[in-house]
Amino acid sequence: MANSSTFIKDEEVSQDPQILLMKAHAATSSIGSATVIVAMLEKTGTLKIASVGDCGLKVIRKGQVMFSTCPQEHYFDCPYQLSSEAIGQTSQDALVCTVNLMEGDMIVSGSDGFFDNIFDQEILSVINESPGTDEAAKALAELARKHSVDVTFDSPYSMEARSRGFDVPWWKKLLGAKLVGGKMDDITVIVAQVKTVVIPDDEGSGVELEKVGGEQLAAAGVASTEQNE
């Protein structure tokens, strides 16, 4: 992600998140692998997304989830990843999509550790109750962290595991037990809101964004937690 930040304004990238991933991956020398998602907002209100693996992004409009990315995986709990090894995936394997945003739309993006531990309705409730994006991001990260260590919480992760055939032993099932619990993992969530969208004119105006730290950004909040299994 540090390399992505470096190349964000590269002329070759030209607002293409898949090219951004390609250049960032090529410049990365660290040993290991990681899932990744990048979203770039154009002045016209078009959100371009490139994702490798099971990070996710949702767009919330008027209190409802109107768009969600889909995870990529080889099999359950084994997502696509960009890797330092040649056998891993590349930017060419990325899920690429675009979404046309409107004024007031909320963007919630996060790691699998976030989406494995929180339901859409909980996301909507926290967004609705939060005064701003910073507060929403922090509240969502904390709720996901709380769920991740709750062995009694029937999480999205445990529900998906059961649907894939993973469960408690048969004799526990006879006693009414089932596989439940959150998934301990690193958790990162970004919440952003489109402030204003205007019809493009000859001068190229488009989305009006709140100015943060000297750069034009959508109003956004970021929160993360780290957990060791």
Order of helices and strands: HHEEEEEEEEEEHHHHHEEEEEE
- Describe the sheet with the most strands: 5 strands, antiparallel
From the spread of the alpha carbons, the general shape counts as globular
Class by alpha and beta content: alpha+beta
Which quaternary structure do these chains form? single chain
Roughly what percent helix? 25-40%
Tally the beta strands.
16
Largest sheet: spatial strand order: 5-4-10-11-16
Mean pLDDT: 89
Beta-strand fraction estimate:
25-35%
Low-confidence stretches: 208-218
Rounded radius of gyration (Å): 19 Å
Distance between the termini: 23 Å
Structure description:
The protein is α+β, with helices and mostly antiparallel strands. The protein is built from seven helices and 16 strands. The protein has helices at residues 2-7, 17-26, 112-115, 120-129, 133-148, 156-163, 170-174, and strands at residues 33-34, 36-41, 46-52, 56-61, 64-68, 73-75, 78-79, 82-83, 95-100, 106-110, 187-193, 196-197, 207-208, 211-212, 215-216, 219-225. Strands 5-4-10-11-16 form a five-stranded antiparallel β-sheet. β4 (56-61) and β5 form a beta hairpin. The longest helix has 16 residues, at 133-148. The two termini are 23 Å apart. The relative contact order is 0.15. Residues 208-218 have low confidence and may be disordered.
